[in-house]
Amino acid sequence: VAPSAPPLDGHGCWEDAHQANNNRNTNVSPMKTPKTPGVQRSHSNAGINSRRHIFEQKTAKTGEKCGPCGKRFGFRGTVFKCVDCKASAHQGCKESVPLPCIGLGSAKHTPGKNHVYGLTDYTPSQPPLVPGVLVHCVNELEKRGLVEVGLYRVPGSEREVRELKEKFLRGKGCPNLSQVDDIHVLCGCIKDFLRGLRDTLIPNAQWRQFTQAVENPNQTESESDILQAIADLPQANRDTLAFLILHFQRIIECPDNKMTLANMAKILAPTLIGYSSKDPEPMAIMSELGVTTKCMETLLNIDADFWSGYVDTDDGDQMYNKENLFLSPKTPEGPALLKRGVGGPLEAITPGRQSTKKKNILVFRSPFLS
User: Which pLDDT belongs to residue 352?
Assistant: First the structure.
């Protein structure tokens, strides 16, 4: 399947970041999880591209344009429209409609001034529950922009970011991202979309659960608490967080962009983690910025195999190659929980069979460095 834009000169770095599972940047501290030996991660749109478009032949509306070529359909001309994502194309342009096909959520139009949508309003009906705007922007960025210096730090044009976001939110499929010359516009669209949601990706109601977990001086309890906090997230938040963390880790793994783990954490923490209130005072922002950044660093330091367990689902299409079979901890909706007997092999356990001091605390082998 042809990508929506060809890779540029940084293809070698792009390829290394997606396939070199063991050659990670020294700025990242990979947390070890039990996994299938010899399996390599693939790039983020390898498996999800199995989500093909299903086109129906329709009569074009006045002024309607073809997504891939941008030309208007003739008066009462024939248009091929995807049943799920609503992308429109000429018969000869159907194969150029960008993959994957991400179905629309309940928010099918740009919200008005007095209405703000939540994350679940933009997610498809089948897992993994990740909004199409994020999937397409991440895929395009990773195809041709991993070597760009200052990803997510250097701002893109506000006008171009706003226009690109509005094109996505119109609910007419993925715009032609090959026409976006500035990679930083894609980064800006991702950040602007997340900032425009009703709540942060880590919901405000769970902010203290996450920050208290990373501030716990007992390392074992801290690791257990942060993984429990992830398990407690709503599925759309957890799937989207996993998808984005994997993306951010691939950026960190590419040294040419000069974005270290510490830099990424400082930039992304206010957008993804937020603060203790939705409208914090300046003094509160200053006092909470440290723990918010520490929380972001902790999430970025969790091994990619753990996050892949949430994105590679058995219920729906996979965002990664099906050969990625990881033994990672997860909730009843996620990977199997693991325990190791004395001198024995790992074995799966269910949440109902766990015995812990704290009620509903999950027991599994930690994906953090020991």
Answer: 35
